Amino acid sequence: MTDALNIVVDADGIATATMDLPNRSMNVLDDDLAVPLAALIERLAADASIKGLVLASGKKDFLAGADVDRLRALASAREAFDESMRFKRLLRKMELGGKPVVAAINGKCLGGGLEIALACHHRIVLDDGKARLGLPEVKLGLLPGGGGTQRMPRLVGMQQALQWMGEGADIRAAQALKSGLVGALATSTDDLHAQAKAWILANPSPKQPWDQPKFRYPGGDSRSPAMAQLFSVGPSMVSAKSHGNYPAVTHILSCVFEGGIVGFDAALEIESRYFAACAMSQESRNLIGTLWYQLQAIERGASRPAGHPQRLVKRLGILGAGMMGAGIAYVAAKAGIEVMLLDTSADNAVRGRQYSQDLLDKAQRKGRTTQQLRDATLARITPTVRFEDLAGCDLVIEAVFEDRAVKAEVTRRTESLLASDAVFASNTSTLPITSLAAASVRPTQFIGLHFFSPVDKMPLVEIIMGQQTDDATLALAFDFVRQIGKTPIVVNDSRGFYTSRVFATYVMEGLAMLREGVHPRHIEAAGLQAGMPMPPLALQDEVSLTLALHVADQTRKDLAAEGKACAEHPGEAVLRQMCELGRIGRKANLGFYDWTDAGRSLWPGLAEMFPVAARQPTQRELIDRLLFVQANEAARCVEEGVLRSVADANVGSIFGWGFAPFHGGALQFVNAMGAKRFVERARELAAAHGPRFEPAHVVVNLAEQDGLFED
Question: Which of 102, 349, 451, 532 is the most buried (most CB within 10 A)?
Answer without folding.
Answer: 102
